[in-house]
Structures are given as structure tokens and as C-alpha cells.
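note to self — DONT lose this again. spent like an hour looking for the file last time. sequence + predicted structure for the chain T wanted, 562 res
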Amino acid sequence: MIDQYSPLDDRWFYALVFAGVFLNATGLFPPILEPDGALYACIAKTMAQTGDFVNLYAVGRDWLDKPHFPFWVSAGSYLLFGINTFAYKFPALLFFLGSVIYTYRFARLTYSKLTAQVAALVLLTAFHGVLSNSDVRAEPYLIMLIIGPVYHFYHVFRGGKFYHLVLGALLTGCALMTKGLFVIVPIGAGLGLHWLLTGNWKELLKFRWYFAVILSFAFTLPEIYCLYEQFDLHPEKVIFDNTGVSGIRFFFWDSQFGRFFNTGPIKGAGDKFFFVHTLLWAFLPWSLPLYVSVGKALVAIVKRNHFLPEYISLGSGLATFVLFSLSGFQLPHYMNIVFPFFAVLTAHYLVTISEKSLRQWTIAQSVIGGLLVVLIVAVLVIVQPVHLGMAVSWVMLIVFATISLFRQNTLLSLMGRMVGAMLLLAGVLNLFLYPTFMNYEAGLAAARFVNEQPQRVNRPTALYGSTTFGESSWSYEFYVKGPTQYIRSDSVLRQLSSQRPIQIFTTTVYADSLVNRGFAVRSLAAFPYFHISQLTYDFLNYNTRSKTLKPYVLLELDGKIK
């Protein structure tokens, strides 16, 4: 199949890319979202403050879950920009933008310039990709660390120089140090399928690919060393309520296959169709053309009536989709890592359909964009954000500009309208809604309260609660300027407060328990809390929001017993 249309004019393309970069960059403005983002930010903060880049600590204890690479990057950013929201999120945004560049360059190896342009814009505007640049975890890093190796290895296959193999192995090693062994599936499955379906199966026997695997694991040695130093050398440490836990075994087996088979220390509840319906909203506004493009590609393979320019995108995307669908542990953001491949499949489909079909898709996608606008306006009315007037003005400005600039039902108009819709959505979320929601991230509010009072800013704060903590303690730990310590026993609390008055950040339930056990505490302030990453209608609704809130309190303790 050949392209039906000419490449987008460079001026229009770069203008849309700029808008796409900006809409993702709006995620830099909201504070770090709890729980995972704040937890990871705290781990990197400890690393930067102590200078210990080997051991990972969370809630005052050894932490064995995710590999080191994103924490190294975040800690390095802290050392450069200071410990703040921007320093945590900015490197992730750069990695994501790197994935856009790699997606464009990967597409150009096989497809036309137009396909590469459309693929880049699709990736820039896919909803969960945009969301992950606000709620930063490992995915913005992984997206580049997976499409990057695929690009370099495919370049080697097509006759590229040896340094591409080394760069591919280096990025694969970084991917392994970000998520573990399962990254080999999206990196390798597509290449394998491409070789099989194009009659190049002998590539599987060539030494250079086995050398690439060896080199990739060689680049992973820093992670292996750190795990060995922190855990394997110390079998006496209690991890997951057990001693003798091997960090290396966890990295190679429990964290990956343990989650897949739901036999490891971290468990979930898998649903075989979870990602079928999750992609419908996660890949908005492109989910419908994606499903059609994948369906047509599969039918074409079965009937053998035409061939795709490459099968890497289909192989990597579907293999990862099936793998995660069969897994016992699933989260919506897991599929982000193959969004570049989905973007290429979607782009190839859109640039090869007839003008009539393109007009139909442009109208259909415009309806989806219009529904998004209606939904956004409805949410603004329900939520009543702090700057509602400015939010409505933003909506009106983007809608007017999009309608004025992209009137015809062409491919350029299709891309422009979808960029406009996602610019509107990202702006409302990150500039107006999340700043309102963050008023109910109790740890953040309490940290700001303390930081604004010179007599309290350097006082130690005891984060007091359950043995696992979580909820809003991590945002407090990250944003407060003074020292913090996680307290699990009364004796430690008494010892700490006997030296000088301390602050305690906890829930009202634990605050009442301190009073009942004879601690002389004084309430300094109370802060409403809601789990913002799991929004409900009652919380969104301004009139019912107060019923959903859980109170946190900041106390002062002088060590005396009543």
C-alpha cells in the first residue's frame, strides 16, 4: 500500500509538534501526584541528599521493587536543579520527547515522510502518554528506552554501522534497569516477527544479535551490583517479611514472572480483557483508527493479499498487549511503552486510505474531539476549579483557533483538530483541574504550611502511622524542607521528642491514639485528604466533595506524658 497524500508542509508540521510538546510540558506545572509519583520522588530525594546511589530506601527502610535507573536520573536532576517538582518531572519529559524523535526516525527507515510526521503527532497526543508526563513514573523513560533500541537494531539489520548495535544494547540495558526482563518482549518480539514474515529468519542465527544480548546485560551490571550490595550481601535484612531475600533473584524472577503468574510478593488481579477496554481511553483520540489498523494488518497477514512495509510495530505492539493481558498484575499505564508502535500502525493506516475514507475518519475523529470538549466543560462546571473563568477562556480560545485553522476535512485538518483537542484537555487538566485537586493532597498542603513558618521549617517531623504508610506521607516527605523520620513505635517517638519539640504528621485516627496513650500533643493545623489518582464523582462534585475527605493533622509533641 502506498501513501495517498503529500507530506505535511514543514511549517504546519513543526507548528503542530510545538503545540504537542507544549501540551505535554503542561504536566510540569502540577505538584507531584501521590502515591507512586511522590514515593519515587522521595526515593530519589534520599539518594541525592545522602549521595548513596547504590541503596534504595523508602519509608526509612530498604526498598526492593523497581530498578535504579529512573532514580539515578531523578537524583542527578535534583543535584542540577534542586529538589523540586520541575527537577523530578523534567528528565521524564525529555525522555518522552526523545521517544517522539526515535518514532519519527524509525518510521522514516521504512515509511514515507508523511507517515513519520503523522506517527510523531499521534504519539505526542495519545492521552495516557500526556497523562504520564504529569503523573510521572517509569513509563516516560521506558517509551524511549524501548523504541530507541528497536530503531538502532533495525538500522543494523538494514546495513547500519556497528555503533547502532552498541547504542541499541546500551538503551536496552537502561530499559532493563528501569523495568526488568520483560522489556525484552517489546524490543525483540517485533524484530523476530519481521524476520520470520519477510523470509529473513536466518537473522536469528547471526552472532551479532547474541552479542547484542550479551552487551545489553553487560550494561545492566550496575543494577546487578547495587542489588547484590544492598540485599544479597545482607541476608539478615527483613524484606517482604522474610530474611534471606536475594535482590538479584527478585530482579530476574520475582519482580517479573512473580507478577505475571501472581506468585511473587507483589500481587494483583488480572483480567484478560483489561487492556482491550483500557486502550479505548488510554490511546484517545486515536484508539478507533488503531484498532482498525491492527485488524486490517492481521487480516492481510492471514489472507496474504498485501504486505506491510515492516512487521516490527505489529509484532512488538501485539506481543506486549498479549503478555500484559495474560499477566496477573495489570495497570493502565503498562501499555504506554508500545505507544510508538501503535502510533506507526495508526499513521500508516491513515495515510494509505482513500480520500473518501479520510473525510469520514476526519468527521468521526472530530466528533470524538467535540465530545471531549463537551466532557471537559461539564467537568469544569462540576468541579468549580479555583480559576474557572480562566479555564473557560482557555477552552474558548483553543476551540476558536482549532475551528478557524482547520476547516477542511483533510489529513492536516485531522491532525490539527486532534492536537487542538488534546491541547485543550491537557491545559485544563494540568493548569486548572489538578491545581485544584492538589489542595486535597494533605502532605503537600502540610509541607507548604511548615515551610512558610521560619520557626518550624527546620524542625524534624515524625511521619507516624501504619507499618506501610503511603497515602499522603510521601508528598509531605518530599516537599517539606526540614528532616523527616518514619516512626512506628511509641518508644522511638518519646526518644525523638525528648531532645526538643517535634512535629507529627498523621491522620486524626492515629492522632487520637497518641492522646489516648498519654502523649501531650497540640494540634497545629488540619488538612483535608483525598486519593487524587482515583477520582470519584462525589469528589469531583463541588457540592459533595467535603463528604469524601479524610482529615490529616499536624501536631506538636514535646515528649511529656500526661
